[in-house]
Structure formats: structure tokens, C-alpha cells
Amino acid sequence: MLYGSIEAGGTKFVCAVGNEALEIVERVSFPTTVPEETMALVIEFFNKHKEELVAIGVGSFGPIDIHQDSETYGYITSTPKLAWQNYDFVGTLKESFNIPVAWTTDVNAAAYGEYVFGNGKGLSSVVYYTIGTGVGGGALQEGRFIEGFSHPEMGHMLVVPHPDDTFEGSCPFHGNCLEGMAAGPAVEKRNGRKGQDIPEDDPFWEIEAYYIAQCAYNTTLMLSPDVIIFGGGVMKQRHMVEKVHQAFAKLLNGYVRTPDLDKYIVTPALEDNAGTLGCLALARNAELHGH
Ligand code: ADP
Ligand code: ZN
Fold it and tell me: Is Iron included in the keywords of this UniProt record (predicted)?
């Protein structure tokens, strides 16, 4: 018996199969091009395992339609990636695999992975952000994703510009929202080089930490979660989490008592596996509930 995982990212797809213990058995990756091409590779990969495959969990870039009773449930909807606009992702999978498919956002899947196996294990309220090509956020309460008319888009929360920051922001919708100020491309645009090439002692990182700390501050006051996990490429700067702790403590100014910052604002325990493990766990749930 195998579970399938599809992490559908804006730059690459990662597909995997896992066993009953949710251990990853095989994993492959393809560039995200056009649906006809990328999905053909996805289907080819799972076809190899078709006999044993019992359910698939998908964590997708979005926005996506998550409403079970909607006509476009399972679609990627208004994404800036034109070829994927109004694309029937779940429907396409179901044409090839007549098994339960769990469908959620990429960040929800990563949040779920951390909830089941990582830094959210045993906690009831878990928030996960990725600070990468974009900024995305997902929140879980007692094992369920927080959502309403749609899934949250916490990466686009407004932030207050740092006094030393003259960057106008790079979000095409909002300019200086969190994503527009702090995602990888904003880091690169402001500094003329990629985040991975900016040394640890560059004063820019204090500015970056200020935005991520505002995100933690807003999250704390709105949700009072048990843990806030920051993943994604930018958080590979290992010094960043400590800088975020300091900026966060200053912003919050003792207004509420949070858990110990070392346990409260953290990076993913599963590192780059959070999404895949989350999708496998969601596939297992889908199989149990027969969706
Ligand atoms: P994606 O968001 O596409 O899934 P990532 O989370 O890896 O992928 O994010 C990619 C972004 O993170 C790029 O803008 C890249 O420059 C930035 N990035 C990757 N590694 C680092 C690093 N070590 N330090 C700072 N920024 C990084
Ligand atoms: Zn925005």
C-alpha cells in the first residue's frame, strides 16, 4: 500500500510515494512548465505505482478552489501563472487515478507535515509560513485548516516599512505587503544579488527580520497559536530566526505572554520535507475518510 504526494510549486513539482508508516519510498522532481507537460510527468510517475497507490495528497500553489461543493473545486484559479489559470488539477488526477485525492495549498501541506511529524507535533494550533519565491501562510487548529470563503493568504498582510528601507515593494497587487517587502525576489531586487549571496553581517538582514517579526506579531495577536514556523529559502539564513526573535520581542513590548521564543518562533524541523510528509499524511486521511 502506497500514498502519493504532489507538491505543486510555482517553479517545480515534487512527487513522492510513501509507505504505510509515511516513509518516503521514492521521490522525483519536475520543472513547472505548462499543465499538459508537467501533469503528464506526474501521471507517468504515479502510473508506475498504480497497483499499490491508495490515495494522493496535493499541496498546490494558488490561489486554489478548496470548496468541496463548488463547481470548480480542485482547480487552480486566478494564479499569475497564465497556463495554470482555471486548471482542473484534481479532475485531471481523478481521470487517471480513481482514488481519494486530498487537495490543499502548498503551505497548508507543509503546516500539516510539521503538525504531524515536526515542530507542531502534539500542539493544537500551528501556523506555518514560507518565505521563498513568495510568502505564503497556513494555519491549523486541532488538526483542521483554518479557512472560510477560501484559504488564507497571510503572505500578503500589510507591513510597516522599516525606517531605513526605501524599497517600494514588489508585489504586483499591493506593493509593500509582506511578500512584496520580504520574499526572495524582493530581497534580490533591493540588494542587486540573491539572498544566498548576502553575508550574514549585512545590515539588510535586520530589515528583513523586522518584516518577518511583524508577521509573527500579527499572527500572535490574531491567532495566539502554540507555534509559528518560518520555512522557505530565505530562512536558510540560520542567523535569521534569532534576529526575528529580537525584533518580535521589541514589537510586542510585553503586551502578551507567549511561549518561550526559542520554541514559539522556529524553523521547520522537517526542513525541506515538510510539504511531502504533509501531503502523505493528508493522503492517509483522505483514504480513511474516502474522499
Ligand atoms: P520556492 O518558494 O520557489 O518553493 P524557495 O523556498 O527555495 O523556493 O525560495 C526561493 C527564494 O529563496 C529565492 O528568491 C532565493 O533567492 C531565496 N533563497 C534561497 N536560498 C537562500 C539562502 N540561503 N538565503 C537567502 N535566500 C535564499
Ligand atoms: Zn501582496
Answer: no
Tell me the sheet residues that pair with 75.
Answer: 88
What residues contact residue 133 under an 8 Å CB cut-off, 6+ apart? 10, 11, 183, 184, 185, 233
- 34: which 3 cell numbers? 505548462
Q: Give residue 81's pLDDT band: very low, low, confident or very high (50, 70, 90).
A: confident
Q: Hey, what CATH topology would domain 119-267 get?
A: Nucleotidyltransferase; domain 5 (3.30.420)
**Cell digits for 12?**
517545480
Non-local (6+) Cβ contacts of 21 within 8 A are: none
Kindly report the protein residue whose alpha carbon is nearest to atom 20 of ligand 1.
Answer: 233
Query: What is the SS3 assignment for 120?
Result: coil
Q: Which three cell numbers stand for residue 185?
A: 525576489
What CATH number has the domain spanning 2-105?
3.30.420.40
Same CATH topology for 2-105 and 119-267: the answer is: yes
DSSP state of 205: H
Q: Which ligand is closest in space to the CA of residue 189?
A: 1
Ligand 1 and 9: CB distance under 6 A: yes
CA 136 / ligand 2 centre spacing (Å): 10
All structural domains of the chain with their residue ranges: 2-105, 119-267
| pLDDT 10s digits, 234-263 | 999 999 999 999 999 999 999 999 999 999
* Distance (Å) from CA 44 to ligand 2 centroid: 35
Counting every residue written for the chain, the total comes to 291
